Amino acid sequence: MASSSLAWFLLLIDSLLLPVNPVGPPVPAAQLCHYVPNSAQVVFHIDIRSMKLHFERSITELGKRPFVAKDPMIKSMFDRLDRMIKGAMNKAERELKVVKLNQIRFITVALSFERRMSKPEIMVIVHGEFQRKMLEGFIADKKIKVLRESSKGFTFFHNQNKRKPSFAWTPTGQILLATSKTLQALAKTGPEEAAPGSLKANFIRGYRPNHTIAIGLKMTPIFRRQFRRAPGMFQALLMDMDQVYTAVWGGGSLANVTATSPQTLNRYRLILEGVGQIGVAGDFLRRGILNVADGLFEPSGQKIRNPILASLAKHKDALFSYIRHLYTNTSLRYKVTTHGKSAQLQFIGNGGALIPVGGVLAGIGIFARNSRSARPKRISPRTAYPRTAYPTRSYPKRSRHRRHRYRRSAPAKPTSAPSQAVPHNP
User: Fold this and answer.
1) What is the Cα–Cα distance from 245 to 208, expressed in whole angstroms?
2) What is the tens place of the pLDDT at every residue in 154-179?
3) Average pLDDT score, the chain
4) By Cβ atoms counted within 10 A, which residue in 85, 335, 396, 399 is the most buried?
5) Nearest CA to 240 among 261, 266, 269?
6) Per-residue pLDDT tens digits for 247-270
């Protein structure tokens, strides 16, 4: 248990810098969303290559730190963590076999909900420089039965098992995973141009090449039906929302909300202003927690029974210097701007300190989804008529010690000694 806790502690330290600035040449948003359909209601984008390279580099750098390399216990725990991470990556490499992880640069996922939330149409776009024979080798290795079709430079591999996704290879070297229905529509019409007012158009307008993680959401009638059960003020707020775009990168993060009316725009502006102030307050809270923890470990030579804390206390100065470098090397700032029907909150500062921006917006959505107001009870026809009131009979209050009623009373003790029998003398 102790070794597992320390491993997760080191993993937490390593993840403080996430997300990171992108690695490689910038890619325009129109190219990333080229195959995203206009009917998409949720779009998720992540820079896989940058995250992977950063993680490997951070693990190597963390292993060279004095508080890890010079302590046998922490070193052994770090080696265990390193083996666990490399084992997960090697397992992914073995699963893919033909397609290497280093060849994947971006992954974009588009979700479209037609009738029910439980059955969305999914489009997964794997960005990279893939050759068609690589995809063919992957399908042959997994023994997937497909029907091959070529149209407009695309090569489609329709899965005969309709419950499994189908594949497509694009002329630009990208791999698409979707249902056969979605790929057949793509084969007939080709990629769609971004329609005005669609999530695809809003995503292209908001995306920047340095955005490592980006999420877009369009409020459609199927989402509004889900939010009808939210509390009153949240329901009005969410029903008047048109689109949301959030992004996180190494130097900051942003959240852009598009309203359906100017009246609602002012509410979003005030809410984003409050979220910005909370974020700045959280920056001070983080600094305060570090100072409190630093004070608890002072002096560094004190005796501590917990072996993990004792090992960390030996290298207190180096450990807290590293954490402060990650967290507090720059101060966190924010600004709120409005343009048209959109209000935008942008944080500027450490990338690791800005991940909660997306979490705040996600939390609002989860709260609205799970918070169900009490439904009005149905009144049956029988209860609509007045009932006859009958007199009630009052009963005496029960004793708190009911069990004593059923106890047998002990026999009374004699007050005097029994008299001796006098013999009868006739």
Assistant:
1) 12
2) 888 888 887 888 888 888 888 888 88
3) 76
4) 85
5) 261
6) 988 778 889 999 988 878 888 999
CB 246 within 8 A of CB 17: no
DSSP state of 170: -
* CB count in 10 Å sphere of residue 29: 20
How many whole angstroms from its chain centre is CA 93?
Answer: 25
124: phi then psi, degrees, rounded to nearest 5: -110, 125
Euclidean distance between CA atoms 260 and 360, whole angstroms? 21
> How many whole angstroms separate alpha carbon 177 and alpha carbon 179?
7
- Does residue 198 register a pLDDT over 70? yes
Q: What is the mean pLDDT of residues 22-37?
A: 89
Alpha-carbon distance of 332 to 284, in angstroms, equals 9
Q: Contacts for 239-242 with beta carbons within 8 Å, 24 or more apart?
A: 240/264, 241/268, 242/218, 242/341
Q: What letters, b where the CB count within 10 A reaches 16 and e where it falls short, cover 272-284? A: beebbeebbeebe
Check: CB of residue 208 under 8 Å from CB of residue 170: no
Q: What are phi and psi of 363, to 5 degrees?
A: -65, -35
Longest dimension (CA), the chain: 141
Sheet holding 333-339, edge to edge: 146-151, 154-159, 166-169, 175-178, 121-128, 104-112, 42-47, 213-218, 241-249, 252-259, 342-348, 333-339
pTM of the model: 0.74
Which residues are bridge partners to 169 per DSSP?
155, 175
Residue found under tokens 């249902």? 179
